[in-house]
């Protein structure tokens, strides 16, 4: 039996319970199993096209994965121990697999042995971004401080995912299975389209911006159909849904290209975005400057570059203090 092939089949959610048991038995009882897994994925790692992540970071991550696999060599063989080993080996194997499509390595996969449902979760922590390809070929870009979830029923009756944060989707066409993004208070249904959804828990507004195709928006007691260059906005506090025309819908997914775009955004709104993108606390020493408006696209969007441009185009100064940035009005 080719256990590596079986492992990859498992990661795609295609294994039967009997195959999963055989795979677990191999991992638990074959002394060479973990070294075989490590060697195979190290080879795969080296063959993976450049993702934009530095070679030093890739090496550190690979060594960390190998170290964790080795640590679990000594796990006890109790039922609880087997479950821990199973979950961790799958997680570390998944981490390697995901590097082929994830540009920032913050993806973790979880398996519940109590049922036949496999849950897949991809995280992009603050200061990071990820991209992945779903089983049907749908491409997803995940912005900072965001989470995407789906399970192995994806594509059986429908293609449903759950989103917390912000993501841009290029949906693979499949007229037989609707594609649904659920944020809890807003559902976005699409068939072959490109759109951006932003739904952060700590923000009052949920937005969906359509670039191509057509989507159906559903919120509690309200529905709307979006056409290209339209944006749906749902206010959590007002429970109101509105649809507006946007001049530059393409700005909504500029972050997927490493750009920072804003159109009439206040400095306070920009500060929130920068805080997520760079995992830095941003404070204001002046309330007046919070309402300053900015428009433009910054392609070299390093934090220093963004702050320099803001300070050059407005009476705003900034200071870096430890892990925080202080914004103030120029005296």
Can you walk through the features of this model?
By secondary structure, this protein is of the alpha+beta class. Helix content is 29%, strand content 34%. It has seven helices and 19 strands. Strand 9 and strand 10 form a beta hairpin. Helix 3 runs antiparallel to helix 4. The longest helix is centred in the N-terminal third of the chain and has 20 residues. The protein is globular. It starts with a helix and ends with a strand.
Query: What percent strand?
Result: 25-35%
Could you state the order of secondary-structure elements as H and E? HHHHHEEEEEEEEEEEEEEEHEEHEE
Helix percent reads: 25-40%
Q: Sheet bearing the most strands, described?
A: 14 strands, mixed
Q: Please give the count of helices.
A: 7
User: What do the pLDDT scores average to?
Assistant: 77
Number of strands: 19
Q: Span from first to last CA?
A: 73 Å
Please give the radius of gyration in angstroms. Answer: 22 Å
Structural class: alpha+beta
Unreliable sequence segments: 48-114
Shape: globular
What's the arrangement of secondary structure elements?
Blueprint: H1 3-11, H2 17-29, H3 33-47, H4 55-71, H5 79-98, E1 107-111, E2 118-124, E3 130-133, E4 139-142, E5 146-151, E6 159-170, E7 179-182, E8 187-190, E9 194-199, E10 205-212, E11 215-219, E12 222-226, E13 230-235, E14 240-245, E15 260-266, H6 267-278, E16 281-284, E17 293-298, H7 303-313, E18 316-321, E19 324-329
Parallel strand pairs: 6-7, 16-19
Antiparallel strand pairs: 1-2, 2-5, 3-4, 4-6, 5-6, 6-9, 7-8, 8-11, 9-10, 10-13, 11-12, 13-14, 15-17, 18-19
């Amino acid at each position: 039996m080719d256990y590596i092939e079986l492992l990859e089949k498992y990661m795609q959610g295609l294994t039967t319970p009997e195959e999963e048991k055989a795979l677990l038995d191999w991992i638990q009882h074959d002394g060479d199993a973990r070294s075989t897994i490590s060697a195979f994925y190290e080879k795969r790692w080296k063959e993976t096209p450049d993702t934009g992540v530095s070679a030093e970071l890739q090496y550190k991550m690979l060594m960390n994965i190998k170290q964790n696999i080795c640590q679990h060599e000594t796990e006890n063989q109790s039922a609880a121990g087997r479950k821990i080993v199973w979950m961790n080996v799958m997680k570390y194997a998944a981490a390697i697999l995901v590097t082929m499509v994830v540009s920032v390595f913050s993806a973790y996969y979880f398996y519940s042995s109590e049922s036949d449902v496999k849950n897949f979760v991809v995280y992009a922590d603050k200061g990071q971004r990820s991209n992945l390809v779903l089983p049907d070929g749908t491409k997803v870009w995940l912005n900072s401080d965001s989470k995407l979830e789906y399970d192995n029923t994806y594509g059986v009756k429908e293609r449903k995912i759950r989103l917390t944060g912000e993501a841009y989707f290029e949906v693979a066409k499949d007229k037989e299975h609707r594609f649904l993004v659920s944020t809890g208070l807003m559902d976005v249904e699409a068939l072959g389209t490109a759109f951006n959804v932003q739904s952060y828990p700590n923000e009052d507004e949920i937005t969906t911006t359509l670039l191509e195709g057509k989507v159906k928006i559903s919120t509690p007691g309200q529905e709307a159909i979006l056409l290209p260059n339209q944006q749906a906005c749902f206010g959590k506090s007002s429970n109101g849904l509105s649809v507006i025309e946007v001049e530059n819908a393409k700005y909504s997914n500029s972050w997927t290209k490493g750009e920072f775009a804003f159109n009439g955004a206040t400095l306070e709104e920009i500060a929130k975005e920068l805080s997520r993108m760079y995992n830095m606390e941003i404070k204001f020493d002046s309330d007046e400057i919070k309402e300053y408006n900015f428009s433009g696209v910054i392609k070299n969007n390093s934090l220093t570059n963004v702050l320099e441009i803001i300070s050059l185009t407005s009476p705003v100064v900034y200071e870096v203090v430890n892990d925080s940035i202080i914004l103030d009005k120029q005296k």
